[in-house]
């Protein structure tokens, strides 16, 4: 039962105890009081989305104008997060994590951190709460295989949307990463 920080400022991994027996399991995926304490404020989630994707589907690096709280209900997914905030001390940092039935964690994603996932099971169900309502102009897409980012994707030829195929590179959109 912990909220862990990552190498990206504000990106949090929420781990809670899974209680299981021969009938199945029970898990509190998060407690708002713990998230509020970790953030120093209470986020207000206004919309929940459910995405189902098949094996090898890669939903590209999308950076939104809202915070997200993501959870893989069924299946296994590889997630990659990228800090696109030019004023952040971790600008350009990448965090990779497997989530799903084998690692039941929830991820809090701050505004300006790109979020992507690739399904490695036959399919996966992915739920995410957001702090603002979806609008088509509310997100940017970054090239999924940009060598500047060096993400270790588990699939060489993923199934991508046209939007993700047409996405621009990191430096073109956000600027040079200063190391």
What does this structure look like?
It is a single chain. The protein has three helices and 13 strands; from the N terminus they run E-E-E-E-H-E-E-E-E-E-E-E-E-E-H-H. It has 179 residues and is mostly beta strands. It has one domain: Jelly Rolls (Sandwich), CATH 2.60.120.10. The strands form three sheets. A six-stranded antiparallel beta sheet has the order 1-2-10-7-12-5, with helices on one face. Strands 9-8-11-6-13 form a five-stranded antiparallel beta sheet, with no helix packed on it. It has a two-stranded antiparallel sheet with strand order 3-4. A hairpin with a 2-residue loop joins strand 3 and strand 4. It is globular. The N and C termini lie far apart (34 Å).
Q: Quick gist of this model?
A:
With 179 residues, the chain is mainly beta.
Task: Give the topology, please.
Layout: E1 2-5, E2 12-15, E3 18-21, E4 24-27, H1 32-39, E5 47-54, E6 58-64, E7 68-74, E8 76-83, E9 94-100, E10 105-109, E11 113-119, E12 123-130, E13 139-142, H2 162-165, H3 170-174
Antiparallel strand pairs: 1-2, 2-10, 3-4, 5-12, 6-11, 6-13, 7-10, 7-12, 8-9, 8-11
Supply the key terms:
179 residues, mainly beta, Jelly Rolls, 13 strands
Largest sheet: 6 strands, antiparallel
> What is the succession of H and E elements?
EEEEHEEEEEEEEEHH
The CATH superfamily is identified as Jelly Rolls
What is the domain tally? 1
CATH architecture annotation: Sandwich
Please, what is the oligomeric state?
single chain
Structural class: mainly beta
| Counted beta strands | 13
Roughly what is the average pLDDT, rounded to an integer? 96
Please state how the strands of the largest beta sheet are arranged side by side.
Answer: 1-2-10-7-12-5
Helix content: under 10%
- Low-pLDDT parts are none
